[in-house]
Design brief:
The strands form five sheets. Strands 3-4-7 form a three-stranded antiparallel β-sheet. Strands 11-10-12 form a three-stranded mixed β-sheet. Helix content is about 45%, strand content about 10%. The protein is mostly helical.
């Protein structure tokens, strides 16, 4: 018998931003499909019309594009099982629900909103605060009369009242739920739209989805899905439930990841200066453990190494420090050209349209930056010399004091004024030669030069790189200003 092609689907609801939990689900679905030579399908689930947010569909497309999760079928590219937007499929669902009514596996429920609300307030006979199955056994004539009178209704599934339902999950193993805990779930709402659960099952079956991947918070609702598959006599897909993503609280405990832990949306993390490929690599490891001892993976390497048996049951903790470390590793691995291109918007925040020696600037920033958003603050001193006190020139380790710093600056100004070529190499040669001539340690000369050039105790890069970026005129102006400060 020929093995069925693996097909996974990412089926987001367009209700706002892309949470890292949703993105991880999409990533694992993509990786399961790609690691097994299968197809990754995008389906937009917009049946909950009240919760739709304008522009949210664009967010889904943009996010998937930025992280490189290319779907094989979807609303924008089509495929043999379309349409791939649930609202465009709305006429598909009612006939399936009516089939179950005819077979005695579902029923019309005419209960009013008020009656249902009275059940939830605890006055009804519902054993567990759910629906009390009031319409489950209405006489056929009564049902026909109410339908003829155009009484609003929903269609509910007849759940088994006794026994239990067991299902297998690829991560959590065998799970059993007592049937008495299952409410007679609504399949078709009074507006004619299917419920999320019902549309999900019908679409997954019609689209030949083999693996259903979702968060473990949906474990308890899986028997409802299975009972639907069984009611239709359809094959049940492989379930892959993912562990929760937690955040660290201030007191050291953990709780479900939320805004109070930090940014939880993809777009917010990008705004904070994290790279898309960093985010993908990091969230791949939130709940999945590679067989080999490594952490840095490209998307194609993840697809090559991914396997369902590496997914953990234990909750994963979203660690922002670790994410930042990952980001720094990715930044350092970039070519200088790519680094300059990514950093340019941040350079322009400080320098506007001015042209600087970008390669030298990149050479001092790339080893130090962990997020591009740090750049403007790190380089502000190059645009404008900060106000600094004269005692910055005093440094024990470099053996500098106010007196010898003035001598060093004097000598440096004189030597640099005669320099023909203003490059890192020529600056290096001149200043090293000068230190030798003055018979002082390199640091004794370079410390006062750097303080005068930067006006800061800690800088990315040393005196020579800073002078190269500032250029001749501005460098000599700053050194002279430092000398005046020392004399004063």
């Amino acid at each position: 018998m020929q093995e069925k092609m693996v097909r996974t689907r990412f089926a987001p609801s367009p209700t706002g931003f892309m949470h890292v939990g949703n993105l991880r689900t999409a990533l694992y679905e993509y990786l399961i499909a790609k690691s097994m030579g299968g197809k990754f399908v995008l389906r937009i689930e917009d049946t909950d019309q009240e919760r739709l947010v304008e522009g949210a569909v664009d967010i889904i497309y943009n996010t998937l594009r930025q992280v490189g999760l290319q779907h094989d079928e979807g609303p924008d590219i089509g495929g043999e099982y379309g349409p791939y937007v649930q609202s465009q499929r709305k006429d598909i669902y009612l006939p399936y629900a009516e089939q179950l009514v005819r077979e005695g596996k579902a029923y019309y429920c005419f209960c009013t909103k008020e009656r249902l609300e009275s059940l939830h307030s605890g006055n009804g006979e519902g054993e567990f605060g759910g629906y009390d199955r009031h319409c489950r056994n209405l006489p056929k004539e009564e049902v026909e009369r109410l339908l003829a009178a155009k009484t609003p209704y929903v269609i509910r599934q007849k759940m088994p009242i006794e026994g239990s339902t067991t299902f297998e999950d690829a991560v959590y193993g065998s799970i059993t739920i007592e049937n008495k805990e299952l409410e007679d779930q609504i399949l078709i709402k009074s507006d004619g739209y299917p419920t999320y659960n019902f549309a999900n099952v019908i679409d997954d079956h019609l689209m030949h989805i083999t693996h259903v991947v979702r968060g473990c918070e949906y474990l308890s609702s899986t028997p409802k899905y299975n009972l639907l598959y069984q009611a239709f006599g359809w094959e049940i897909p492989t379930y892959v439930h993912l562990p929760l993503i937690m955040g660290k609280n201030d007191d050291g405990t953990v709780s479900k990841l939320s805004k109070r832990h930090g940014s939880t949306g993809f777009a917010d993390l990008i705004r904070e200066g994290y790279l898309p490929q960093t985010i993908v690599n990091y969230i791949a490891l939130l709940g999945w453990c590679p067989k080999e001892n490594r952490e840095l993976f490209t998307l194609s390497e993840l697809a090559e190494h991914f396997s369902i048996d590496g997914i953990s049951k234990s909750p994963a903790v979203f660690d922002y420090d670790k994410l930042t470390w990952f980001n720094g590793e990715y930044i350092r691995a970039m070519s200088q050209e790519d680094f300059i291109a990514a950093a340019m918007p941040y350079f322009q925040q400080v320098f506007g349209a001015a042209q600087l020696n970008w390669p030298v600037l990149a050479s001092i920033l790339q080893p130090r930056v962990t997020k591009f958003t740090q750049i403007p603050e790190m380089i502000a001193f190059l645009k404008e010399l900060p106000d600094y006190p004269a005692d910055f020139f005093v440094n024990k380790k470099s053996k500098t004091n106010l007196e010898n710093s003035a001598d060093m600056l004097n000598a440096a100004i004189s030597a640099l004024s005669e320099l023909q070529e203003w490059t890192v190499d020529s600056l290096h040669e001149t200043l090293m030669g000068l230190a030798q001539k003055l018979e002082v340690k390199n640091g004794t000369l370079l410390w006062p030069v750097r303080i005068a050039a930067a006006g800061m105790l800690v800088t990315p890069g040393g005196a020579i790189e800073i002078l190269a970026i500032l250029g001749r005129e501005e460098s000599l102006r700053r050194l002279s200003f430092g000398l005046e400060k020392l004399k004063a």
